[in-house]
Every structure is written in structure tokens, then in C-alpha cells.
Design a protein that fits this description.
The structure is a single chain. By secondary structure, the protein is an alpha+beta fold. 46% of the residues lie in helices and 21% in strands. The radius of gyration is 30 Å and the shape is globular. The N and C termini lie far apart (74 Å).
Length: 312
């Protein structure tokens, strides 16, 4: 920028001198020679400046290409962390989608089939965006899978995750999470909501919000979490979502909101999970009218009743 400014000033002064000395040029060979030298020098300076600009532009393009390659690799790694398939014959049906706002993001969901026959599923939203949020999300995924075991209760798992994140990060980085463990033998779902958007439980045309739990993970050491227990019946529907769903359109001052989501879920609750997912995401996109402002994650879970023993 400094070189460009100097060149502009130099050319401006040269133009003024040329204008003022136009009559002297006709009368003096020395003046003509001097101005020719000045013009030649200015041209040389301009060529050098353009060459430097081209070099800098090439380096910028190379750096951009390198960063895009790194982001693509990170995106592939992040996609590999999401479950490729869902447990079968466990009494639950799943459908899920995660749409990052900036190529890679901090939203996360997981569904894990446990050795004792149970199923663990979770949804989380890491603070921030971009690569830093994706790194923290990957750490959370590894910690969750390591902490989940046959004898671990949801509140014990969340306490372990909170303690680990408090050691790894400062209080400005945290994660909200809904963590649940399903027992197909008893049809019981035990869960903890660690500061996450309350999932919706739809049954018999009524909606209940699952709010029991505690603070977000990674904010306060030694946080205790409360576990809640509910019995699921056949056709009960759980809607887990990140705030990218309810906050859609916030930039225009009209967010989609939880009430609008609840009303929509009531209208489509009897459809298949794939159809429900499509209807919700389409409605959110139509409402916001732009590219996602935040990562959007939607996880749908439907109880199928007791496997092999009829429905309740």
C-alpha cells in the first residue's frame, strides 16, 4: 500500500511538472531529455510495482488454496465423526441431519449401541464457529465415547465431560448437550439436559419439553447434574435440535422460534421421520430466506414399542 501511494504521488507531481513546463519543452532539449528520463523512471517504477502486486496476489491465491484444502480435510474428518448407521432392533428409530454454517462447525450428534443392549444418543452445540469449534467438538466426541459405559449413568457421564472440558478450555469455550440412555428391556429413557435447547417429546398430540439436567459443559468445575427418567410408548416422538433451527432468521430480526417449531412438529408428528425432517428443514430455510446463520442440527427419535412383544 505504501509503494502504491508513493507511485501515485510521483505520477501526480510529474503530471503537474509536465503541464507547467509544456512551453519549455518545445524550446529546450535538456528539458525534453529530463522529462523523458522522469517518464521512463515512472514507467519502470510502475512495472516493478505491478510485478510485486502480481507476486503478492499469487501468494495470496496459494495461501487461500492451502487453507481451502485444510478446511476440506477438516470437513471430511468431521463428517467421519457422525454415525454412518443407526442401531437396529433396539426399539428406537432414528433420523438425523447436520448442516454447518461455515463448511465446518461445532454442532454434534451421536448414536451409540452399547454392549449391554442399550442405546446412547446425544446432541451438542459447541460455542463458537469454524475450525476452533470443530476441534472442540471432536474432543467432546472422543470424551463422550470414552465416558459412556454399561454402568455409567447420564449424570455421571455429563460430570466427567464437564470436568474434562474445564481442564482443557477456559470458561469462554463450552458446550451445551442433551445426553440420553435408552433401555429397550424396560422402555425407560434416562437423560440429562446440560444447558441445551430442550428436546420436544410428542405423545398423544401433546408436547413436553425435556429440561432436567444442569449447566452447560465446561463452564463451571464440580457441577452436578440431575438425571430424569421417562417411559416411552409406541409412536412417541423425540425432536432434538440445535439453536441454529430456532434462531434462524435472527439476522433479519424475526427468528423461527421454539413456538413455531412446536406448532410445526404437532402438524407433522404422524409422518415418517424422513418426511418430518424434510418438512422442518424446508420450513426453516424458507423462513430465514438465506444461507444458515448458525449450524443447524436435527435429530429425530421415535419409539417403536417392545420388539417382539407387541406395542404398548
Amino acid at each position: 500500500m505504501r509503494d502504491k501511494l508513493k507511485l501515485i504521488i510521483f505520477l501526480f507531481l510529474a503530471g503537474i511538472l509536465l503541464y507547467l513546463g509544456r512551453d519549455a519543452i518545445r524550446k529546450s532539449d535538456l528539458m525534453a531529455w529530463g522529462l523523458t528520463l522522469v517518464g521512463t523512471t515512472a514507467g519502470a517504477v510502475m512495472i516493478v510495482a505491478l510485478s510485486r502486486f502480481r507476486i503478492e496476489l499469487g501468494e495470496s491465491r496459494h495461501e487461500l488454496t492451502r487453507r481451502n484444502a485444510e478446511i476440506n480435510v477438516a470437513l471430511k474428518v468431521q463428517k467421519a465423526l457422525f454415525p454412518r448407521s443407526f442401531p437396529q432392533d433396539k426399539g428406537l428409530e432414528f433420523s438425523a441431519a447436520c448442516i454447518p454454517a461455515r463448511g465446518i462447525g461445532g454442532d454434534y450428534y451421536d448414536v451409540i449401541s452399547m454392549p449391554d443392549g442399550g442405546v446412547v444418543f446425544a446432541i451438542a452445540d459447541v460455542s463458537g464457529k469454524g475450525i476452533s469449534a470443530a476441534i472442540l467438538m471432536a474432543s467432546l466426541q472422543a470424551l463422550l465415547r470414552a465416558a459412556s459405559s454399561n454402568d455409567s449413568t447420564p449424570n455421571q457421564v455429563c460430570k466427567k465431560l464437564n470436568d474434562h472440558l474445564c481442564q482443557l478450555t477456559d470458561s469462554s469455550q463450552f458446550a451445551t448437550m442433551f445426553y440420553a440412555r435408552w433401555d429397550p428391556a424396560t422402555q425407560l429413557l434416562r437423560y440429562v439436559n446440560a444447558g441445551h435447547n430442550p428436546p420436544l417429546l410428542v405423545r398423544r398430540k401433546e408436547i413436553e419439553s425435556l429440561v432436567t439436567g444442569g449447566r452447560p459443559l465446561g463452564m463451571f468445575p464440580e457441577t452436578e447434574y440431575e438425571v430424569a427418567e421417562i417411559r416411552l410408548h409406541a409412536r412417541d416422538l423425540l425432536v432434538l435440535y440445535s439453536d441454529g433451527i430456532t434462531d434462524a432468521g435472527q439476522r433479519e430480526g424475526r427468528d423461527f422460534g421454539e413456538e413455531r417449531l412446536r406448532s410445526l412438529v404437532m402438524l407433522v408428528a404422524d409422518l415418517t421421520l424422513t418426511e418430518i425432517q424434510a418438512r422442518i428443514l424446508t420450513s426453516v430455510r424458507s423462513w430465514s430466506g438465506s444461507e444458515p446463520e448458525d449450524d443447524m442440527t436435527l435429530v429425530l427419535v421415535r419409539s417403536q414399542g417392545r420388539q417382539g412383544g407387541g406395542t404398548e
